Amino acid sequence: MRPFTYSRAQSAEAAVAAAGAALAEGAEGIEDSDGAGGAAGGPATLAATQFIAGGTTLLDLMKLDVMRPRRLIDLNALQAEYQQIRTDGQGLWLGALVRMSVAAEHAQIVQDYPVLAQSLQLAASPQLRNMATLGGNVLQRTRCNYFRDPSYAECNKRTPGSGCAAILGRNRKLAVLGVSEHCIAHYPGDLAQALVALEASVELYGRRGRRSLPLEELHRLPGSTPHLETVLGSDELIVGFRVPARAWTRRSLFLKIRDRSSYEFALSSAAVALDLSGGVVGEARIALGGVATKPWRAREAEVLLRGRALDEAQARAAAEAAFAAAVTHADNAFKPELGRRTLVRALLECAALPLQP
Amino acid sequence: MRRHRLGNVPRMDAPADPGPRGAAADSSAPTLALSLIVNGRRAHLTADARVTLLDLLRERLGLTGTKKGCDQGQCGACTVLIGGRRVLSCLTLAAAVREEVTTIEGLAGSDGPLHPMQQAFIDQDAFQCGYCTPGQILSAIACVREGHAHSDESIREWMSGNLCRCAAYPQIVAAIRQARGQLSR
Fold this sequence. Notes:
Number of helices of chain B: 5
Strand order of the largest sheet of chain A: 4-5-8-6-7
Distance between the termini of chain A: 53 Å
Largest sheet of chain B: 3 strands, mixed
Radius of gyration of chain B: 17 Å
Largest interface: A-B, 29 and 40 residues
Largest sheet of chain A: 5 strands, antiparallel
Radius of gyration of chain A: 20 Å
Oligomer: heterodimer
Structural class of chain A: alpha+beta
């Protein structure tokens, strides 16, 4: 790790002010991973001042010399709202600093938002879930081996404009949806898809105050700017997530397909939620993971399920639509079919859940 | 050498040990005054802000029972308890620790009987090379306390964060089955 100063913020205001002050100074500057420098106020992932909560992504990437912040602001003492889980008839509030392990076993989340609980239970390991926060988990970065190894000079995400070593390299686990000629890095998380499927919104707080947006809009496609992963400003915190209670929320599940049965990232995953009555889908909500460059809302599939009886043939048609635009590379040509089968199985298992009406 | 005040942590008066050793020590890197409670004893140190809890335990406090397997959060050998919760010390900054730390050395008294989980690991032949074992034992204790050791299937799932290259897994499950009814601490 490169040297950094460490401080602990006692409030969100103090954290944001400290990050904002560093930006305004300009003197710290913002470096990309080869030290070429960039504009102050640039992408959050390249900022010289980083927030740290659980630290499980940040410290990992700092040890690999992929991320090189010069200043860490510890968020763990932030005020109550950031630490709370609250439910009412309208929905669920999840503070950004809630630990994954706590949310995973929260009785009301398990019962009323099962896809959320499952996405957390199936993620990482018990130790990591005790450390990692919901806000940090959503912001985790790709496991692409080329991104994670600075000895590969070609990584547009680490070093804008340098190329992509993965496209002609070993790319088995990388994305087939949302890719560009500049980047095929996968988004490896699970929770984000569960939140996207349930139409969660994310609250942000920065120097310019608070704003809320659909979580689906937080992450960006790589396009020609893979180093811009989210719409977050370098001074912005995630405050928490609001998950509405809708007709499809309770009948939901998370299916994770991977090389190992535990403690492994998804090769393919599906977060599905169904408003189902008499075997007919009122509404479906689908988000895919392990196969895309960002948490992937599969609207093309949802549309094919709406108003129809859900059987294997219809599920298969929806899955075909979800992956119709897939672009594969040398080692991941298997992924679209794996992704389709994952979605079909998730939909059928979700439809078969024995819920009380 | 710059010093950096750390919020509500008391400043140390005098270093308890001579300071960081080894080739990686960088005298220009920011340092912090740290105060931690480890196995019931308070330690005051100055350390580079980058020091992980794992390295602090091993290099500065001489508590080498906690092992460095991968140093990337992928093997679980570095598992310790912080505030009674199992965590990975290789991905924990020493500066960020706010609750009591329990390591493998903290389970049995210096001349006292072994912790039931330690004894169970011996009784059930639950280690070969022993390298993953301290992390396994602490993880196992937490697993039981969390209520996740009620069945073999649950034990396997909830212990999956601790890898064992010697593949002592079946015996580890057996050890946890043996000890789970005996944990009062």
